[in-house]
Design brief:
Layout (H helix, E strand, L loop, with lengths): L8 E4 L9 E6 L3 E8 L2 E6 L10 H10 L9 E8 L1 E3 L2 E2 L1 H9 L3 H10 L3 E10 L2 E2 L5 H15 L10 E3 L6 H10 L4 E6 L9 E9 L2 E11 L5 E7 L2 E8 L5 H13 L1 E4 L3 E4 L4 E6 L1 E3 L2 E3 L2 E5 L10 H6 L3
Parallel strand pairs: 1-12, 8-10
Antiparallel strand pairs: 2-11, 3-4, 3-5, 5-8, 6-7, 8-9, 11-12, 13-14, 13-17, 13-18, 14-15, 16-17, 18-21, 19-20
């Protein structure tokens, strides 16, 4: 069976959009998923058309047990995010990645019980077999609310395999909530936007809620231009990952020259430097104690490298 619709994608923005013609949703860190639900069963598709059915049986089962009562709406095509929730406002990408790597059936079944996933639905693309992608978003949201009222699982609480993502019209208030709850960010969508499959559009924008920390540079990779960073944990240097984005060409050139002047070793791949150069980085979250999507913010000449402990570096949530 083929993917019925390629997902519509949001553009990245640095600020919340202005105006009254936007709605706002919590952004969850998960797997984008298109669900095709008919009387004969459900197919969960990744954005590239691969099946999620084997990996997330608890979600498949949740659809199946509701099929009889949902017959008046079927067949349906839904769009959403497969997640493992830490709270109603935050998902764990690390837990999801571990789950996604499982292949053996019994291990998957055990994981589905121990830490179940949730399919968070935010759009409906087809109802009763009729495509409604040309219908304005606000109308599609009304249809989705009606569907989940019938399902009686309208709240996106951890542990429910099927849930509907809530939305708000006050972006500023919702952004404060996202920051307080350490969410990944917000998705802003124009109320009148149509669903354009496979297109990245400015009718939907994502605003990320990054964390920040101060780390010291340990090496420069001459092959790919990335800078490796670390922090002190129990008095020893531990790796925190690597970064490249966010530097201006001038900042990059200066940093490389400083590293060359203070190097303690060099081979064909790396220039090694003793801890001394401190930088502030923004990042999405930690995955296996490595920074996800780090971005340079500033040189921190006011910070001693000895003060760049792991605890301090990762304690600044926002």
């Amino acid at each position: 069976m083929q993917l019925p619709f390629k997902p519509m994608l949001a553009s990245l923005a640095s600020d919340l959009p202005d105006g009254h013609d936007w709605i706002f949703e919590i952004k969850y860190d998960g797997y984008r998923c298109i669900a095709l639900w008919s009387e004969s069963g459900v197919q969960l598709f990744s954005r590239n058309g691969h099946s999620f059915n084997h990996s997330f049986p608890e979600v498949v089962n949740a659809f199946m047990v509701k099929t009889e009562q949902m017959k008046p709406f079927l067949p349906l095509v839904l769009d959403g995010e497969l997640c493992i929730l830490e709270s109603p406002y935050k998902a764990s990408f690390e837990a999801l990645q571990k789950r996604g790597r499982l292949k053996e059936g019994q291990r998957i079944k055990k994981a589905a019980v121990d830490r179940p996933s949730t399919y968070l639905v935010f759009d409906v693309l087809s109802e009763r077999g009729v495509q409604i992608t040309e219908v304005p978003l606000k109308e599609r949201k009304k249809k989705l609310k009606e569907i989940f009222k019938t399902l009686a699982t309208a709240e996106n609480k951890a542990g429910k395999p099927l849930a509907c993502i809530d939305f708000h019209s006050n972006g500023s208030e919702y952004w404060e909530l996202a920051q307080k709850q350490h969410s990944e960010g917000l998705i802003a969508k124009r109320c009148k936007s149509k669903y354009i499959p496979g297109v990245r559009t400015d009718q939907w924008v994502k605003i990320k809620n990054p964390k920040s920390g101060v780390f010291f540079i340990t090496a420069y990779d001459k092959n790919n231009g990335y800078f490796h960073v670390g922090a002190l944990r129990d008095g020893k240097t531990v790796s925190a990952g690597l970064f490249s984005h966010g530097l201006t060409p001038e900042e990059r050139s200066v940093l490389i020259e400083i590293i060359k002047k203070n190097k303690t070793g060099e081979d064909r791949n790396f220039i090694i430097v003793t801890p001394s150069i401190c930088v502030e980085l923004q990042y999405l979250e930690l995955y296996k104690d490595q920074l996800r999507h780090p971005r340079f913010v500033a040189f921190r000449l006011d910070v001693r490298w000895e003060d760049c402990t792991w605890e301090k570096a990762v304690s600044s949530k926002n």
